[in-house]
Amino acid sequence: MRLNAFLVGALAFALSHVAAHPLGISTSIERAEDNLNAFALRGSTPKSKDKTKDKDTKAKDKGKTNGEKGPSICKAPSKNSRSLFARSKFNCGDKIEIDRKEYTLGNELGSGASGTVFKLSDTVKGHKAVAKEYSHVGEGKKESQNLEKVGQLITDATQKDGTVFAIILDMVDGKRKKLYDWHAYDWFVKQNNNKGSQCKTFMRAVREAIAEEVADIAIQKGLVHDDFTSSGNVLFEGESEEDIKVTLIDWGKTEEVAGRSKADIKKMALARLEDKRYPLNAFKSKSASPKANAFSDIQCDPSSDLYDNPWQ
User: What pTM was estimated for this model as a whole?
Assistant: First the structure.
């Protein structure tokens, strides 16, 4: 009623001036409409803003994780990071207990048949960490032992419901990068349009560095990493093919040294890395082309379908 009265009054005022100012009707009506719009906005805008602000605040508070300086939102896990057989009991935002202290799980980083990895915003014993929830207690205990051997385990944490977590050093930092995030790879491979002798020379050096690390750890720790052909399990440092440093992560799949020499293990690793076929994993929701091994010279063939591979 109040708006209608205002509009009627404004229009009457405009029409009363038409006789004296025959060219002023348009201007008068436009002013009346402007006044009406201003009045309507004054009555509705603050309420609308309050709703938006309240909605945003609730969403941010819902995703807030322990120890963070500001609010964050738990992101839905990528479809390409999840296994068909992933069976996680916990989710981002849930609380877990580590050495009698409560921590909040951050975003999910990846999930497979063996378990699910979550980011932790709080440090654990002074270290940046991730938490891996295991689908099977036995597998969790085994990998925890492997991680301890290679110096990547902070602690393990069994929850009240029996769920086993391994609290692992967060190895992906400012220095160590996965293959496709590594600036040296971008320079020597992508900048050369994935072709030419420089690309092949660089990829040969990458394979050599991985095989050397696999063999070194096998002899020093008695463990042979069995999933090093997956680019997600290898981190890189270095500026060129001459100073590549490798860190192996995800120690769920290993095999025994079984009396093999360092040379034997390195030869085995190189053969697998050179094979252009990608080892398909039946537990993934999508499968890569069997031609797509990330560390082979397929990288230097721009016609390959490597770059449609969601698991690299």
Answer: 0.69
